Amino acid sequence: MSGAGKPEVMQAAMMLLRQMGITPEDLLNTTASGVPVPTFAQYVPIVAAAVGPGSQRMYSTYWAKAVDRWADRRIDSVIPSEIEAAMREIQATALRRRNNRGGRSAAEHFISAMRCFYKRAVADGHIAEGANPARKVPKPARLTSTRSALADDRLAELTAAAGSSGNDPELDSLILRFHIETACRRGGLLGLRPMDLDVEQCLVLLREKGETFRWQPVSPTLMAFLQQHCRERGSPADEVLLRYRSGKPVGRRSYDYLFTRVGELLPWVRVQMISAHWLRHTTLTWVERVYGYAVALAYAGHAETPNDAGTTARYVKATLQEIATALSGLTGEPHPLALPGNLPVLDSAGDVLIGEYD
Fold first, then answer.
1. CB 56, CB 41: distance < 8 Å
2. Do both 44 and 156 map to the same domain?
3. Residue 244 pLDDT > 90
């Protein structure tokens, strides 16, 4: 029979601890590895310094909320119910923008931030994997996106409005053209550098979500205007390519200004909250309809991470030549990497999807 719990055993244990200079609180505040368990205020800066820039940008607000709530508490003292209660409060108090959907996005991001936080705590030996409280709180179900492909006439309206208004229509037209041709995410263009241009093969190196890298074909016309932009605005070879006329690099806010201004000219842009990501939907939908799912998957940069497509997608990857062929059909321009014998695909009016860039 075990002696655990007997008064004489407990007294002997307490005496031994006193002789060693250790208190019961010391045992509670230390992991099995002997490392003291940090508080939220102590550990959040460590986690923030360890993650990439994208995670910092996405999660820093929510880690700050955790510090506000539990600053002096040890990270192993918070239970799943407390995390879920914090998530509900964040969801209820989320900023009500025009595209607000009940605070679900804020709630989802908070849980993602806490899972990232506690994943680091497990790796650093502060808590055991089975004691990770963030993994025991389910994320809110993600609602279906309201984005969809734009019709040809709407796309033409959008590009015409951007290219005929504002104080830098050349820059705005270049941004839209780049997104239409490449179907890249916003970060892909904002991270583009002059040194990322393969002029001979008409390829650009995109660095996107999840620190991924991929070469994406662009038309000879777009490549020429990217080079012209670099020359005229003095873009350093290893720094941001897109520049204002002043030479200042373009940032994420420029997209907000662009679509807000166009929305003042085109009410449907404002009402539907059109953004650059709608252009990604538009191009990828067109590529899938004309060239098939495998090509659209690769065009989007998803070829290495199939999800709902199943395992088969791993064996039907599209080549760079097939992506270039789809781009040639999209723009109506020959591409040096396009497969031979493939003519541009015309729309019902006999025109290619994208007109001349000017």
1. no
2. no
3. yes
